[in-house]
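4.2 Preliminary Data

To establish feasibility before requesting continued support, the project team ran the inverse folding procedure on a target of 313 residues. The structure was first converted into the token representation described in Section 3, and no sequence information of any kind was made available to the design step. The complete token record follows.
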């Protein structure tokens, strides 16, 4: 009970992000300590041989500059598998071709609607930078893809779009591009819940044999989980991407490493707010796993975590 005294954080000129994380760990205080423990767990997971490393996140952060942090993780091949939502594809592709803009939470949303501007938190997304550009760009690509085959898993279709970005000026900013380039599977279980899925549906109106093979994704996920000697996950946010990641783990005894990063509360019983300890009751995380739940905004904490990790790796 008395073996670890609280230490004051020492801020020094020129210190790097990892040095700051170590100071937070010594401070003993609230979320700061959990953030530092989370970095330690992710580092251990990444360095563990024969550990399949999952990265899970929702779409909202891809509308922000945090997209660049996710992109860097895939570019450096730090994670083996991505599970995310359809909106990730929307925002990643749209931002290859158009800009999103700084906005405000406190704004007249009726006025924005009249101007054809969509608000995602404090990000402004004009119609021409989202739905219109995706339709203009995706439909020709789908027509080309259709000539090769008509039944696609989400991983296959995402990689195919990544390949089609190869001649784009901004390709190296894209998550999808690096997933294809480095052959990192991206699985999207809710593939129709966004503009990407809607564009595929629109293409389907004239090509009724063009379909998704979602069960092929599930078979691949099953094989990945059951073939893994150990497994770990960095899970950002909640929803279907979080649930799909931990759902598969219960069939193999649970994750060996788990770091949750969330702003959701647990008292409403939601999966998004559920802590790591709840997942233990389901067998989705092992009883003796290394795990922590970090309460905080991923647009702040994820860059700190990854910056610290890159110093260590």
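Position-by-position output of the design step:
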């Amino acid at each position: 009970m008395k073996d670890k005294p609280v230490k004051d954080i020492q801020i020094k000129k020129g210190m790097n992000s990892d040095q700051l994380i170590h100071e937070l760990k010594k401070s003993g205080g609230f979320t700061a300590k959990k953030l530092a423990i989370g970095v330690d767990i992710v580092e251990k997971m990444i360095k563990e041989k024969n550990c399949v490393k999952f990265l899970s996140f929702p779409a909202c952060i891809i509308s922000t500059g945090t997209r660049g942090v996710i992109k860097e993780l895939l570019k450096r091949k730090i994670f083996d598998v991505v599970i995310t939502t359809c909106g990730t594809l929307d925002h990643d592709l749209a931002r290859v071709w158009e800009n999103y803009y700084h906005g405000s939470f406190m704004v007249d949303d009726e006025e924005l609607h009249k101007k054809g501007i969509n608000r995602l938190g404090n990000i402004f997304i004009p119609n021409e930078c989202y739905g219109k550009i995706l339709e203009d760009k995706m439909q020709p690509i789908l027509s080309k893809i259709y000539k090769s085959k008509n039944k696609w898993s989400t991983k296959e279709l995402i990689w195919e779009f990544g390949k089609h970005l190869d001649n784009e000026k901004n390709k190296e900013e894209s998550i999808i591009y690096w997933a294809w380039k480095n052959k990192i599977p991206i699985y999207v279980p809710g593939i129709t819940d966004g503009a990407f899925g809607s564009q595929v549906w629109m293409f389907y109106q004239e090509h009724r044999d063009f379909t998704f093979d979602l069960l092929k994704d599930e078979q691949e996920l099953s094989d990945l989980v059951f073939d893994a000697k150990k497994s770990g996950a960095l899970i950002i946010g909640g929803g279907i991407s979080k649930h799909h990641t931990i759902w598969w783990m219960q069939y193999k005894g649970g994750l060996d490493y788990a770091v949750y990063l969330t702003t959701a509360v647990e008292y409403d019983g939601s999966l998004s707010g559920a802590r790591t300890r709840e997942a233990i009751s389901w067998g989705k995380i092992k009883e003796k796993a290394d795990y922590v739940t970090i309460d905080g905004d991923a647009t702040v904490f994820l860059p700190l975590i990854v910056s610290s990790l890159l110093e260590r790796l």
